[in-house]
């Protein structure tokens, strides 16, 4: 039951971020609702497709579909009353990331897959919806930035696997993992928690001395 409720909350949170991200794109109601639903349902759809689950989760249980639809419509009409949409966006995104990652990790473990598969699919489920949202709304994907994003998802999924293996009867394992991801994301947003520079790939432009010679020649004449 807890897993089911967390999944529903994750659907609602990501649907809201999809609607907010479309706020400056002059989209109509149908387009905005569609973006919210794709954002909220996309990660789990990819997970079930990759794992060849017999029926995609929102097809098997249309309650997920209705929650995504209702949350998107509610956000469409309610977003204009939000004083700080960017803050709501980041908190809802962090909440959705945490919920989707942990719910997916637990579901994959329950399906009998190994821990590495569960962690991988948890991360993919957590970040995929946000990637789809950002691409469709022409935003730089959060997962590709310097700020902690995929790492909290990995740590939360890893923590859940450890708890599930060592204390499987504990009913709050998923809550602990969700809190870890959410807290790390909040710190990343408010405390500028970035990856160290030595972990970042920076493309450097090769120096071509022939261009310098050509420029100096053009300058003379």
TrEMBL record:
Keywords (A to Z) from UniProt: Cell membrane, Membrane, Transmembrane, Transmembrane helix
Residue ranges of domain Glycine transporter in the record: 5-77, 91-164
GO cellular component terms given for this protein: plasma membrane
Membrane-spanning residues: 63-81, 111-132, 144-163, 175-194
InterPro entries: Gly_transporter
Membrane-topology annotation of the record: Multi-pass membrane protein
Entry's localization field: Cell membrane
Pfam family, one: Gly_transporter
Family: Belongs to the UPF0126 family.
PANTHER family: INNER MEMBRANE PROTEIN, UPF0126 INNER MEMBRANE PROTEIN YADS-RELATED
Protein name (database record): Membrane protein
Lineage: Bacteria, Pseudomonadati, Pseudomonadota, Gammaproteobacteria, Oceanospirillales
